[in-house]
Design goal:
The chain is α+β, with helices and mostly antiparallel strands and 675 residues long. It is 34% helix and 19% strand. Strands 11-12-13-14-25-18-17-16 form an eight-stranded antiparallel sheet, with no helix packed on it. The termini are far apart. The relative contact order is 0.09.
Length: 675
Amino acid sequence: MTVPQLSRLSWYARRAARMSPAEAAWRAHDQARQLAWSRRQIGRDQLPAAASPSAGERRFTAILPGGQAARVPDGARAAVLAAADRLMRGEWEVLGVTRTDLVTPDWFRDPVTGRRSSPDRYAFRINHRSEEQVGNVKQVWEISRLQHLTLLATAWFLTREDPYGQRVADQLRSWYEANPFLSGVHWTSGIEVGIRLISLTWIRRLLDGWPGVVELFEDDELAVRQIRWHQQYLEGFRSRGSSANNHVIAEAAGQLVASCAFGWFPESETWRRASARLLEHELLRNTFPSGIGRELASDYQSFVAELGLLAAVEAEVAGHPLSAAAWQRLCAMADSAAALVDERLRPPRQGDGDDGRAVLLDGPVPGGGWPALLALGEALFGRLDWWPRVTADTASTLIGGLAGAPRDIPGRPQQRPSRFPDAGVTLLRTDSGPAPEIWCRLDGGPHGFLSIAAHAHADAMSVEVRYGGVDVLADPGTYCYHGEPAWRSYFRSTIAHNTIELNGQNQSGDGGPFLWLRHANGHEIGVVDTGESAEWTADHDGYLSLRPPARHRRSVRLDRAARRITITDQIDGGDYDVRVAFHLGPDVQAELDGHHAVLRWPAAAAPGEARLELPPQLRWSLHRGETDPILGWYSPGLGQRVPAFTLLGRGRCTPSASFVTRIGFLGAGKTEKRS
């Protein structure tokens, strides 16, 4: 047996150990169903029979109210058309890779590795985690979400210019023909199927009025088959147990949206009822009452909220509204998002992120998911007085127009929250004023969601600090999911975060790219805020497995008047090798002299300078862009990494040792704020 085969078997054994007996039984049943469904695979040379119901009985009625195109703000309209014109030339950025082949895309080729997966192979015989079989599967899947086509359809909706509509039609037909039921890699993941259904719904809605739209959807037997196949897939296979994270939300939302909008099939009512129940249950299960996502991964919090809001609006328009509890939780997600962002509307960078969107109706903007969520939340619920000001975009205008008047949700917070105790998330920040905001996020909660905590990082007690929205002490981000295990491991590790590592170990036990075997859970001890200053204290249990057991306690104090942050770390236990890392944002330059460092970011959006006093008991060194070992990197988004400075302290700690770090910000020049 080869080393890769042994490695895969070892991973499967570790993964199985995280399953309950019920989940293991379900997975065995799922495997049997996958085997049985091989008889249902459709080949590319098999033309579909006439779909049911007949073409004359199919009607698409879930259209936008009149006059919506004129309501789209000029800036949003210009951004859509600029992005659409790039797409018409075949140009698009996909997870950090600039593509120029999207006039006639190859749906199976990975542009990163050049590998092309088999379009004819039965889907459940494809290992989509294998780079040898499919290349970088995120790159391959991303285009088949068809979100570049929702953007082109939006361009047609805004301009009524035929080339946009014709390009959408050409590529949709190409996708339909290349991807018959259960053939190829695009039928291997339910989240992809669910998102694709949302895209198809919005493409049909936006192209309503285009002369070829009925021929492209209602009168096209293959298109109707595809819409039904997608829903049959989601009825037969869904994420469960330790995998029921954002994937199950996407699956339920996609089925609910499609069964409401394309209610053409004998099963449509059954699908609608089942998906609505599933979505409501999983929204409450996947989200803390405060609105913070239980995955504790900022990108996925926005993604889940957007999926839930889209599906809730679709059900409302179809006359089958979700429960008051589901709407309340969706509103809490929007309110918590408004509370978490910094003064430039940037969210935390906690946990994994892949820039995923539920639907794309606007020109892509780096980090644009959270401002888009806030704009949508304002359209659907109305803004509270403490919310940051956001600008309406195309999506919030059109989805809000579809929904009608904002929904009144009782019990919303009347002041901006700074603590979310159920999630262990706390913000210390200075008040708004002429000086750039000091924004500090603290992690004192659970490790992640479910037994594998797939999208969590080993970041307990980590601190993230920004000055005027500029990363100073930075969370490193994600960089990659597949194909580069050393990089995946680093970006999830304890040493890649602004916290303490003992005896060279992660706080949580890493079992694979999306698998944690042991979870470090934080416990917030308290927050005291006097106005002049605010202090947070928490600890975590991730080092209780050491011998002797250790506990890491951290206090972080923000002195608002002095514009200074003090971090005090205490290790209770025995003697350990200790490493303390402080990772700087890519705009920050650093000079180290002993245990003092000068930080400057003159070219950033909010220029500034800080002095860092580091614990003198440790030996400090400066690192940037190193690969052996990996250290000194920052990921702006999935598929991207750039060098950034890291300050690393090494030494030994004795029982009840404490380490004190102070960062003082110098100068208080004004920064341009969003209004």
